[in-house]
């Protein structure tokens, strides 16, 4: 949707393809491909640009680096839906955010697919997870998924609650809103990071919070 609206970090190029997620059965391989054979069940890893490839179609072409065999116990639907959320969360939290044991990780939009994946990854690293959601309606679910604290952005004083829970480290998520980022940024200590969505609309609030902007290939990050 963001790509269609021109709000994504990748500028649309026409004619364009769409879609990052997919799973299916290999029907043909390139001359130099040795890792896969016709008949293999595979899923797509989101490691390419819309301007080059896409998964909207009954038959699609994919580069070999963006294809992986998936476990037999996964359905095609499960295999197609797993990679985007976990790769996005892993890239933001581990590769860029360098989340470590004892860090406090604040996840905006924590009830989303990326948010749920991020909770699991952050907890595997030994981090303390503060999950943000618009209301407390799904708070119990987030706690069951592993979140340590839940803050409702429409019901709680976000800045006050964040300050109460921690003042050590904030590493955000790929589903934060401008308001969430603006509230979280003042609580972020020097040399810590805020990772936000792939949205140009989030640049201004981060900059107003006094952060320095750099662009990763998954998200925008602000280091204070």
UniProtKB/TrEMBL annotation:
Annotated signal sequence is: none
Superkingdom of source: Bacteria
InterPro entries in the record, alphabetically?
ADH-like_C (IPR013149), ADH-like_N (IPR013154), ER (IPR020843), GroES-like_sf (IPR011032), NAD(P)-bd_dom_sf (IPR036291), Zinc-ADH_QOR/CCCR (IPR051603)
Q: Which Pfam families does the record match to this protein?
A: ADH_N, ADH_zinc_N
GO MF, one term, reads: oxidoreductase activity
Q: Known SMART domains for this protein?
A: PKS_ER
Q: Which residues form the Enoyl reductase (ER) domain?
A: 6-204
Q: Which UniProt keywords apply?
A: NADP
What protein name is recorded for this chain?
Answer: Alcohol dehydrogenase-like protein
């Amino acid at each position: 949707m963001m790509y269609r609206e021109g709000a994504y970090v990748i500028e649309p190029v026409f004619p364009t393809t769409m879609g990052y997620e997919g799973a299916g059965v290999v029907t043909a391989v390139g001359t130099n491909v040795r890792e896969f054979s016709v008949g293999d069940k595979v899923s797509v890893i989101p490691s390419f640009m819309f301007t080059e490839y896409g998964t909207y179609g009954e038959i699609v072409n994919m580069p070999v680096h963006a294809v992986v065999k998936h476990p037999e116990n996964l359905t095609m639907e499960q295999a197609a839906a797993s990679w985007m959320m976990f790769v996005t969360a892993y890239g933001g939290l581990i590769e860029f955010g360098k989340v470590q044991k004892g860090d406090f990780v604040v996840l905006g939009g924590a009830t989303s697919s990326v948010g749920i994946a991020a909770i699991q990854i952050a907890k595997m690293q030994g981090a303390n997870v503060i999950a943000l959601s618009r209301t407390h309606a799904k708070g119990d679910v987030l706690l069951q998924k592993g979140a340590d604290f839940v803050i409702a952005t429409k019901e709680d004083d976000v800045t006050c609650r964040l300050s109460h829970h921690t003042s050590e480290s904030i590493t955000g998520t790929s589903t934060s809103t401008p308001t969430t980022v603006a509230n979280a940024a003042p609580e972020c200590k020097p040399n810590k990071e805020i990772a936000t969505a792939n949205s140009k609309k989030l640049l201004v609030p981060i900059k107003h919070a006094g952060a320095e902007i750099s662009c990763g290939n998954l998200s925008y990050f602000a280091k204070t």
